[in-house]
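This part of the workshop introduces the protein records we will be handling. An example says more than a description, so a record of this kind follows:
>
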Amino acid sequence: MPNLIPNKNLSLLVHLLGWIMLVVVLLLLSPLSWRMGEIQLPYQFWMKQVFLVGILITIFYSNSSILVPKILLKGKNYLYLLMVLLGAVLFYGLIVYFEQFIGYGKAMHMLFNPNKPYDPSKRWLPGDIFQLLLFVISIGLSTSVALVTKYQKDETLRREMDRQRINTELSYLKAQINPHFFFNTLNNIYALTNLEVSKAQEALLKLSRMMRYVLYENQKNETLLSKELNFIQDYIELMKMRLSSKVSLNIQIDEPKDDLIIAPMLLLPFLENCFKHGISSQKESEIVVKVEIMGKTLFFETRNQIFPVNPDSPEAHENGIGLTNTQRRLSLIYPGKHRLKFGKDESKQEYWVNLTIDLS
C-alpha cells in the first residue's frame, strides 16, 4: 500500500504536533490551572512563555542539526558536553535578561505578593529549576531524534547497498549460467547434425524458443512458474533427440494452477547435471524428473545414475559452475524459504536432488 503522506511531510507533521503538545501541556495547561478564575495573569507572563517556546525550539534544532552531527557524531564527546553546559548557562542568562527587560519578576511579585516589597535580587528557585529542566529535555529529545535519524539513514543506505550488491551478484551468476547452458545445448545440436539433419533443424527451432525465453525472461528478477516449466519441458524434449533407447525418462511435471512466481532459469542446472552425468551409451540408465506443486510450495526432484564423463569432453574440465551458482542464487533470492538437499546413493550409484521452495 502506498504511503498516504510523504516521509518529509510526515516528519514535519510529527515535529509540529510535538511542539504543540509541549506548548499546551507545559506552558499553557499548567499556568491556566492556577486558581482559574481568581487570578488574571499579567501580559509579561505570556510574553515570557512565547519567548521560552522560541528559545527551546532554537535549542532543539541547533543541537539536532549542528552540534550532534558536527561534534557528537564526529567523536568529540567532551567538546559536545562542554557546548551543552555553555548552552545551559547562555539559556539561563537569556531567560534572566528577558525577564528583567519586560519586568516579569516585578509583575509576578505584585500579583502573588502585593503586600510585600519587591526585591529584584531574589529569584524563585523552583521556577529556575523548571526552566533548566526544559533545557535538558530539549537537548535530550533533539539528541535522540538526531541519533535515530542518523541510524535510519545509515540503515537505509546499508539496505540499498545490500540490494545493489545482491542485484549485481545475481546478474553475474546468471551471466555465468547462461553461457554454460548454451555451451551444452550447442554441443547436443552439433552431435545431431552428424546423425540426422531434420532432427537438428527441429532442435534449432526448440533452441530458438528457449533463447527467446532466456533473452526476455532471464533479464527479469522473476517470471511465471508456468513459463519456467514450459522452458524445462522444451529443454527435456531437446535432450530426448540425442538419447538412445538405453535411456529411460521418467518425467512428471504438474501444471501450476495459480500465477506463481519464480526466479528464471533456476531449475535448469539440476537438469543439465542429470543429462551430463546420467547417460551411458553402453548401459541402461534412468533419469527421473518430478515437479509437484502443493498450494504455493514447489517440490522439485531429480535422480540419475552416475557415469564417468568422457575425459576428452569439455564438460570433464568443468567444476560444477551451474550447480554452485544455483546454490548461491537460492540463498540470495529465497533466504529461509527454500530447502536444498542432494547426495549420492552409493548402493545404487545414483545421484539425487530434492529442492523445496516456498513461492508465497
Remarks:
- The chain has a mean pLDDT of 78.
- The two ends are 18 Å apart (CA to CA).
- DSSP finds nine helices and seven strands in the chain.
